[in-house]
Amino acid sequence: MLVVIIRTLIIFFFILLGLRLMGKRQLGQLQPFEFVITLIVAELATTPIEDISTPILYGIVPLLTIFVVHYFLTLVCTKSIRFRRVMNGKPMIVINENGIDSEMLKKLNMDVNDILESLRSQQFFSIEQVAYAIVETNGHLSILPREQAPAPKSVPLSLVVEGKIIEANLGISNTSREQINQFLKQRNIALKDVVLMTTESSKIFVQPKDDKYFTVEL
Amino acid sequence: MNFRMVIAIMFLILLLAFGIFQEIYLDKVFSQFDSMLEELTNPPDGKYDLAKTIQVEEWWDKQHSKMEMFLPHLPLNEIAATLGEFKGYVKTEDYESSTAMLTRLMVLSESLSEMSGVRIGNIL
Q1: Low-confidence residues of chain B, pLDDT below 50?
Q2: Is A68 within 8 Å of B11 when comparing Cβ atoms?
Q3: Which residues of A touch B12 (CB under 8 A)?
Q4: Which of A109, A216, B92, B119 has the smallest CB count inside 10 Å?
């Protein structure tokens, strides 16, 4: 048992040293390669602690190697924009003056619900309230609010998301499939081309694919 | 050059130096062990030399404690146990079993040496 305690202390010391070398960043601010490092470090630390038949160096050497690699990668990232892009990717604008950029979402492997969720977590309940939204390289969503945008009176309900009618919300919003189809037909929009359609009070928000969003007061 | 860079470069040098040292050290130990085992094989009258066997075992015990820092303990213990068995057979003059144990020791030494060396098979 004492061996395990001593090994744990040694590994703890080396991880602490490595993390100090990495600098101060919170988990949410980690770049993709830093996140990979965090996962590997957790795994590397446990093996030599648990298995006393493994030399402790089998834990320390990879830990130090990873921290050193991280240091030099970060250093090159600060010197070269191109390298930084390769390692971290680049920020992507997912909401612009036309509304949701569904092509950009595809590139990011995100869907409309992910964006709506991120917006809601930052107190934005409607796309109209947002002038620009940018997915940062660490996955954080940065938002530039639209000035004088009307705040929704209630939580907007999604009726159509990425060309699919959300059956669960039809009853809540007293809307039928036919009403949605008729609404879209009147405006020459195919259901499959609707990225997002929401309702809130008497207001309908529609985000067509490759077009600017619009709202209709009923 | 800031403090972090100094530490990072220091670690880098230490890691490389340690890796090279380990490679050379283990290679030297296993070469010596192999040649000691080689000396034991084919005794002139078909009888293994007990004194030499004990000498090899004592030498290995010394190396064992150092090598535990670099290699997994189980294969090292297996070599120690096989050496003990070999010595036991030599003591009881069971030379057929001794030969089998000696062959086993040679194979174990070779495989452990290969397991720790820089080879494409170990990297991939």
Answers
A1: none
A2: yes
A3: 68
A4: A109
